[in-house]
Specification:
220 residues; alpha/beta; Rossmann fold; 2 domains; 7-stranded mixed β-sheet; globular; binds S-adenosylmethionine
């Protein structure tokens, strides 16, 4: 069966493009979420994962204080600002400004960065969003452990920055559920695992939505 579709643009392996680059470009061109994001002015297709989860679970409401970790290039921040939320975003990478949002460049797990994020929030957050994707090494076990550690660091920060009853939406890799559940059960009243439709079929990512945080007692 031919893969040619009406209107489909074929990427040629020219100009020194590697095979992987050609595959990536072809996938982008074929992806309806990439086209829809471009049409609606969003910086990334991942906005549709947040939109679906928000529409199903009513995450974001006007006036909420939102902490967006792993925010670049910024489509989740754009979406939350559009919903009328006050957003503080953080990423290791630079991010072009999103009008109405504050941004801190740095590692969200760094205590100095966390302090800066708290100051910008000016009080507890209503929800922590994390689409953090640690750099991969190609070594499966190493990457799995890095991803689990990042989720644990997000949950740890969330328990210290959220208002009582607040929620956390965090990306994780399939298989990490068992490792993180004790922490989730310890700190949150409820949780569910979600795999929005915009998740690529070959991707092993899913999202944990943890609700009803019981804040950490202050350390002595
Ligand atoms: C999939 S992208 C996020 C996409 C974003 N939600 C959007 O809609 O535009 C994952 C991001 O996590 C960031 N990241 C990874 N580790 C981080 C860390 N320790 N602190 C802050 N950002 C991190 C990466 O730099 C990357 O930009």
């Amino acid at each position: 069966m031919s893969s040619a579709r009406p209107g489909r643009v074929r990427v040629r392996a020219k100009g020194g493009r590697t095979a992987a680059q050609v595959r990536w470009l072809q996938r982008q061109l074929d992806d309806p979420y990439v086209a829809a994001a471009k049409k609606r002015g969003y910086r990334a297709r991942s906005v549709f994962k947040l939109e679906e989860i928000d529409q199903k679970h009513g995450l974001l409401r006007r006036g909420m204080a939102v902490l967006d970790l792993g925010a670049a290039p910024g489509s989740w921040t754009q979406y939350a600002v559009e919903k009328g939320c006050r957003v503080v975003a953080c990423d290791l990478l630079e991010m072009a400004p999103v009008a109405g949002a504050a941004f801190v460049q740095g590692d969200f797990a760094d205590p100095a960065v966390q302090e800066r994020l708290r100051t910008l929030l000016g009080g507890p957050a209503d929800i922590v969003l994390s689409d953090v994707a640690p750099n991969t090494t190609g070594l499966r076990n190493v990457d799995r452990l890095k991803a689990e550690a990042a989720v644990e660091a997000v949950l740890d920060f969330a328990t210290r920055v959220l208002r009582p009853g607040g929620a956390c939406l965090v990306k994780l890799l399939k298989g990490a559920e068992r490792a993180i559940l004790p922490l989730v059960r310890q700190h949150f009243a409820g949780y569910r695992f979600l795999r929005p439709k915009a998740t690529r079929a070959e991707s092993s990512e899913l999202y944990l939505l943890a609700t009803g945080v019981r804040p950490e007692p202050p350390k002595e």
